[in-house]
Every structure is written in C-alpha cells, then in structure tokens.
Amino acid sequence: MFHPILLFTLLLLPLASANAAQPIRLGLNYPSTGNYKSEGLELSRGALLAVDEINGRGGVLGRPLQLVSLNSAARAEKAEANIDRFASQGTVMVFGGANSEEALAAGQRARQLGLLYFPTLGYANEITGRDGHRHLFRESNSAWMSARVLGEYLSWHMPNRRYYYISLDDAWGRSMEQALREATKSRDRARHGYSKIAERGARRGEYLAALQKAAASDADVLVIVLLGQDLVQTMRLAQTLELGKRMQIIVPNLTQSIVEQAGPLVMENVIGTEAWTWRVPKLVDSVEGQTFVDRFIAQHQAYPGSTAASAYGIVRQWAAAAQRAGSLDSEAVIAALEGHRYRLLKDEQYWRDFDHQNVQSIYAVRVRNRSEIMQDRFKQDYFTIIHRMDGEEAAPSLDDWQQERGDQLQLQ
To answer: Which tens digit of pLDDT belongs to each residue from 140-152?
Structure first.
C-alpha cells in the first residue's frame, strides 16, 4: 500500500514535468505582406533555424523555445499593436521589423511592457542614438556605420565626385543621407542635389521625377536611400534611363532579397554595404558561421542573406544571455548582454553597454555582373566584398553618442 505522502508526490510529478517543459515564447514581428515581405520571409527562415538548433541542444534553461509570429506589414502602428498581442501571449522577448519607423515604435512599446526588443533592418541612427533605451538592442548596423565604410571606400577610389541623393523621407532616410553626406564631404546641397520620396504611398511618377532630376544634374554618383519595393521600382526605372552607364549608383543598405526582386541585371555594379554575406564565414574561418550556411542551404536550396543571419544571431544571442543569467527576466538578460563579446557567424562582435549597439565589422560590397551570377549553382552569388571596416572604427564614439543624446547620458 502506498504511503499517502508518497502517493501525493507521485501525482504531482507529471504536473511538475509539464510546467518545466512549458515552451519559452519569442515574438517575431515581421512583414509577411506588403513592400518588405521578401525580407520578412528571410527573417522567419533565419529565426526558425536558430530555434530548431537551440531546441535540439536542450532548449534554454531546460525548456524549449517556441516562435510566435505576427505580421507587422512594415507599418509602425501595426508593429506597435503587435507588441501588446505578444505580451498577452506570454512572450519574453520580441525581435524583427523591416524599417526604422516600426523599430522605434515597437521598441518603445516593448519598453513600456518590460519586454526586450531587437530590431532587424532598422538602420536609423536614432534607434541606438537619441531614442535608444535599456530594453532595446540593435544587432544590425546603424546608418552611420554604413556611411563610414562607404565614405572611406569612395574617398579612396572616387575622390572629388559630385553626388545626387534620392532619399526616403523617414527616420532612416534622413539619418542615412546626413551620415553619408558627412562621410563623403558632400554636405553642400546646392552642389550635391537631392530629391525626397514620401514615406508612404509614393507613385511611379515620383520615382521617375527624382531620377530625371538626377539625370539632369552633373552628378557622378547617384545615392538611392530606399529599401523594399521603393528601391526595386526606382532601380528598374534607373535602368530604363540607363543611369548606371554614366553614374556610379550607391544603395547604402543592400540585401540579397533586393537583388533577387529587382534582378541581377538591374542591380549590376551597384555599391552598398552588408554586415554579413554567406561568403564571410570562410573568409574569417568561422566554423559556426559555415555550419549556419550549410544548414540553410540544405533546408532551402538557397544561400542565406544578411537578413536571415541577423534573425538567427539575435535568437542565439538572447538564448545564450538567458542561459548565462539563469533567468528569463529582462533586467537579468540585459546585464548578461551588456559588454558581452562573442564569435558566431563571423569575427568578433559585442554588445556595447552604453548604447546597446552591436559593434561588428562592416563590408562595402559591389553587385557582381549578371554573367558571373548566372554561373553560380543557385544563381545567387551576388556580392563581391570590396572593402572592410572594423566595427570600432565604423561605430559612433561615446562622444558622438553623448552629443546626440544631450542631457540623457544613460539609457533609461
């Protein structure tokens, strides 16, 4: 006959085991529709690969991870509202997004609810600058970091050129144009002209008018500060006008999905920046990076782009920080992330404690000729790395950051 206490204990064991195995929910705020849905697909693929890998190793603190995904449509108000939905579903961290406006809005709401937020494809300087806060960590590079590596490359190889800027009129577009003007000494707007594209609802005629103004100028370099379908449409029109034959076209933040959508012929010889390409792991002897590339290829018969790599890295880094902290509590994970140095998909990276910017090497890349690309097995080997800058050199200094922050010199 069972002793009553022993019987009671045995009855509780299944319940205790069930509670211990309850999944840890991570929220992916990503565009599955709209102008950035291709980027959203890549975010999802990278995140799922990280979740599967972590769960295969026993999860985090003995519990499996579960990815909860909501469509942000790359709209700030929708991304912000999704944070409340994630919180109601018990997520402990949220990441994703395809532009800076949604990163800023969703990040602030996450802070109010005590959730950590990791933006992806959010390049505006304000994200970890003026509007940065304790609950936000940015894995991707800032506009200033892209501008620094481009500025150095262009000053060496194309000095004293005249520029024309076509920029999206949003937080990222403004900060990217300003940073690149500083880096290339093209501040004089009378000499280096510009056109602005509306943040939402721009039509073909606006893109065409901006390109025609650029064509009528004496510019040697055309900088197109756009993303998603805005960029795809503008690049196709630029090809029709044959602007690439007389100007060097710069797209500051290039992604693999952009080249796929616009087509390699349209993007041929365009220069931009990437924080990672699928060739980087071999260049820096990163075993884990090459394993990620191989696993992604095996699952999707395609190369991973920097967007997938960013989502993968965020999940891996959050999980490792929670494991080090021995807790899912946001404050404990923040402490475990700040100042942490690591190697994952490339050479050394670290989370800077004063602004939560991920400091990492940045690459200037050129889109290869279509004939070269078509010889590749997946017809996706798009980028040639033409310049590299160390993260410490690319990232704004503490003095730069404090100048931008004004009186608020600590993250709140």
So the answer is: 999 999 999 999 9
Domains (ranges, CATH) in the chain? 23-140+283-359 (3.40.50.2300), 142-273+360-392 (3.40.50.2300)
Measured distance CA(195)–CA(169) in Å, rounded: 9
The answer to whether the beta carbons of residues 63 and 19 sit under 8 Å apart is no
Quick one: which of 150, 139, 70, 191 has its CA closest to 318?
A: 139
3-state secondary structure of 69: strand
Is the overall model pTM greater than 0.70, yes or no?
Answer: yes
Q: Are 178 and 151 in contact (CB under 8 A)?
A: no
* Residues 275-321: tens digit of each pLDDT: 999 999 999 999 999 999 999 999 999 999 999 999 999 999 999 99
Look at residue 2 and tell me whether its pLDDT is greater than 50.
Answer: no
Gyration radius of the chain's alpha carbons: 22
Q: Is 134 helix (H, G, I), strand (E, B) or coil?
A: coil
Distance of CA 289 to the CA centre of its chain: 17
Q: Would you give the distance in Å from CA 100 to the centre of its chain? A: 10
* Residues 6+ positions from 396 with CB-CB distance below 8 Å: 125, 129, 142, 144, 404
Contact 368, 386 (CB under 8 A): no
Smallest CA-to-CA distance from 120 within 246, 306, 263, 276 is with: 306
Q: Which amino acid is at 123?
A: Y
Structure tokens at 359: 């400091």
